[in-house]
Amino acid sequence: MKNKRFASILLALAITAASLAGCSGGSSANSAPASTPAAEQSAAPSEQGTDWSNFKIGQITSLVVNDGGWCQATNQSILRAMQSLGIPEENLITIENVSEEQVAVENAYNALVSEGVNLIIGASSGYAAFLSDLAPQNPDVIIAQQGARTENLIGYQIRNYEGMFLAGYACALMSESKTLGFAASMSEASVRAAINGFALGAKYADPEEKVQVVWANSWYDVDIETQSAQTLINQGIKYMGMEASSPAVPQTCEANGAYCIGYNVDMEELAPKAVLFSYVWNFAPIFEKIIASAADGTANPDDYYYEGGDSSAISDFNSELVPEDVQKKVLQVKEDIASGKIKVYGGELKDNKGNVLVAAGETMSDEQIVAQEFLVDNVIGDWQ
Amino acid sequence: MTALITSVCAAAIVYAVSVLYAAVGEIFSQRAGIMNLGVEGVMLMGAVSGFLTAYYTNSKMLALLAAIVTGALLGLIYAFLTVTLQADQTVCGMAFLTFGSGLSGFIGKNVTGIASPVKFDKIALPLLSQIPFIGDVLFHQNLLVYLMYLIIPLSMFYIYRTRPGMILRSLGENPAALDTAGINVFALRYAYVIFGCSMIAVSGVCISLAYTNFWNEGMTGGKGWIAFSLVAFSEWNPTKAALGALLFGGISIVGMNMQIYLPGVPSQVYSALPYLATVAAFILSTGSFRKKHTEEPAALCCSYDRESR
After folding, report:
1. Distance from CA of B211 to the nearest CA of A (A)
2. What is the pLDDT of residue B109?
3. How many CB atoms lie under 10 A from the CB of residue B6?
4. Testing the interface with A: which of B112, B206, B208, B303 to mutate, by most A Cβ within 10 A?
5. DSSP structure class, residue A111
6. How far apart are CA A232 and CA A253, in angstroms?
7. DSSP 3-state assignment of A59?
8. Residues A274, A254 contacting (CB under 8 angstroms)
9. What is the ipTM of this complex?
C-alpha cells in the first residue's frame, strides 16, 4: 500500500516534469537570427520617432521556433522585422507547441494578453477560427493571422507561386528529361498554388515539361516524405520541387543522386549535394507593415496582406550545383515577375482536365488564386 | 520495373527495421509480464540522445551506445515503478509517453532541424550485394538493418529454444511458479524491461540517424504505436512481428507508387491502405478466426506481489 502511494507520488512528479519539459519552450524571449548582433538591438526610438520600447509582440506557433521549417521561417521573419524597425528583441513573447484546438489557443491568447502584448501573430492557419472568436474580448490587441481572410483578424499570406515559379523554371532548365517531380503535403489551396507555380515555371522554361505530383497527405511525416521522393526517383525523375516540412526529401535526393529545391528555410546545409536553392518564406516585409500600422493606430481588422516579390523569396544558389547561366536566367525571371512582364497566372491557362481557367490576354484574380481548386495542364496527378 | 520492385522492397525493409527494434524490445518486456505503453516516448528519447551524441562526437557508434544507455536508464526507472513499486502499468506507460515526448523536445531544442555530420549510411556487403535482386534488396542496407537480420533469428532461438527463454515465457505466464522454483522474478523483470527499453531507443536512432540525419520534436510520428500494435499482432513472436512490419511498410510504399500507376483513385485511399490492412489482419487474427489458445502472456500487466500469492 505504502509502495503504491509512493508510486503515485513519483508518477505525479514524472508527469509534472514532462509537462514542464514540454512547455519549456513555452513563454520565452527569442534569440535573434545569427546575423543579428545583440549590440544592434536598440530600444531607442526609430528613425520615424516611434518609441518601440513598450511595443510588445506575441507569437503563437504550432511547433518550436527552430523547427527547421515553417515556424522557424515565421520566427526569423518577425525578428528581422523587429530588427528593421528597432524593436528590442526581448519585446517578442513566444508561445510554442500550441495545438490547433480551442483550449490551447485560448490559453495562449490569454497568456499573451496578460503580458500586455500589443500585437499577436498567429502563425498557423488552424488558429484563425479561435482567434477570431477571442479578438473582440480585447479590441486594443491587434491580431494578425496567417491564411485566408477571417473576421476580426488582419490576414496575411505570401504569393508562394512566384518563388515556386522560379523553382520550377530552374529545375526545367537543368533537367534533361521532360518530367520533373513534386513532393506535396496536403491538398490545400496554398499547396496547390505551390505545385501550379512550380509547373508553370517549368513550362515557361520548356513548354513540353511535365510535373508528376505525389501526395503525402500529411503535413509532417519523415517516412512518407522519404517515400514520396523515392517514388519520384524510381520513375526516373531527377529534379523535383517540394512542399514538405522535413529535410527527408532533400536527403533522399542526395542519397540517390537527384536534386531538389528546398522549402520553408534554406536547406542547403541539410543536403548540400542535392539542394539547388530553397524557396524561403519571408514574412518580414509584411510584418513590418502590420507592426507599423498597429503602433500608429491605423491597423484595421479588414486589412489583408497578400504579397509576393521579396516575401516569396529564394535563398542563395548552391553554386556547386547551379551553373552561372541558370542563376542569371532565374534572377532575370524574378525581375520579370516583379515588373509584371511575366504574369504567373496569365492566360491562356488550362487545367489538367482540359478546362480553360483564364482566357488569353486575361489574368486570374487574387480571389481565384487564393482559393484555387485545380492543377494546371502540365501537372500529372489529381488534387482531390 | 525490376528496379522499381527492388526499390520498393528495399524501402519496406528500412521501414520495417525502424519499428522492429521497438517491437522486439516490447515483445521481451511483455513476455516478462510488463507492458510499456510509452514506446513512442522512449523512441523519441533514443532518437534525440543518439542524435545529440552523433552531433557532438561525430561518432555513430557512440550515438548508438548513448541511445542504448538512455533506453536502459529509462527502463530502470520504468522497472522501478512497475516491478518494485507495482504501479499500474497502463498509467506508467502513458506517463512515460508524455515524459519522453516532452523531455526529448526539451533536450533537443538547440539541435532541431540541423544536420548531423554522421549517419548510418548504406553499406554494400561484399559478394552478397552482387546477387541479382536479393543483393540489392537485402544487402545494400545500413548497419542497423544488418543487425536486425541477426536479432530476429537470435531472439526466436532465445525465446523458444533456450532455458532462459523458457523462463522468460514463464515470467509472463506464471511468475509465482518461478518464484517457488527459486528464480528471482523481480531481477529478471528488471533485466527484460531494461533490455526492452534499450531496443526501443535503438528504433529512435534508426529514425534520427539512419532514415535521415536530423532531429525534430515528435519526429517518430506515431511509429511507437505501430511497434506497440505489432506486438499483439505478432502474438509476441519476433518473426511474425517482422512479417507484420514488412507488410505495413510495403503497403504504405506501394500505396505511394499507386498514385502514379492508378491516378484515378484519390490519394487519401492509398494513404489509408496500411491502416486498412492492419484492421483486416487484426480481424483475421481475432474473433471467430482465432485459435482457442491465445499467446498473450497470462500475467501481462499483473504486478507480482509475494504477499498476495
Report:
1. 8
2. 86
3. 18
4. B112
5. H
6. 10
7. strand
8. yes
9. 0.79
User: Pick from B95, B103, B110: which is nearest to A21 by CB?
Assistant: B103
List, in sequence order, every residue forming a beta bridge with A211; answer none if it has no partner: A180, A379
How large is the average pLDDT for residues A267-292?
95
A56 within 8 A of A141, measured Cβ to Cβ: no
pLDDT digits (tens, 9 = 90+) for A29-78: 443 333 333 333 333 444 456 778 889 999 999 888 888 888 999 999 99
Residue B99: closest C-alpha in chain A: A18
Residues of B in contact with A64 (CB under 8 A): 105, 109, 112, 217
C-alpha cell of B162?
Answer: 533456450
C-alpha cell at A323: 551553373
Do residues A174 and A239 touch, judged by C-beta distance below 8 A? yes
Total-model pTM: 0.83
Pick from A75, A221, A231, A264 the residue to mutate for testing the B interface (most B CBs within 10 Å).
A231
Question: Which pLDDT value is given to residue A246?
Answer: 85
Q: Distances in Å between the alpha carbon of A97 and those of A23, A62, A126, B244, B275?
A: 8, 5, 13, 33, 27
Q: In this predicted structure, what is the pLDDT of residue A38? A: 34
Q: What is the pLDDT of residue A11?
A: 53
Instruction: Residue B266: name the closest of A189, A220, A382, A232 by CA.
Output: A382
Mean pLDDT of B79-99: 95
Which of A8, A227, A381 is closest, CB to CB, to B263? A381
Residues from chain B that touch A184, judged by Cβ atoms under 8 A, are none
Grouping H, G, I as helix, E, B as strand and the rest as coil, residue A279 is strand
> What distance in Å separates the CA atoms of residue B71 and residue B68, rounded to the nearest whole number?
5
In chain B, which residue's Cα lies nearest the Cα of A222?
B219
Residue numbers in A near B115 (CB within 8 A): 247, 269-271
Residues of A in contact with B96 (CB under 8 A): 14
Contacts with A271 from chain B: Cβ below 8 Å = 115
Record: contact B115-A247, CB cut-off 8 A: yes
Residue type present at position B85: L
C-alpha cell at B89: 502499468
CA–CA distance, A122 with A100 (Å, rounded to integer): 11
* Cα–Cα distance measured from residue B184 to residue B90, given in angstroms and rounded to the nearest whole number: 24
Residue B227 has pLDDT above 60, yes or no: yes
Count the residues in chain B: 309
Q: What is the pLDDT of residue A40?
A: 37
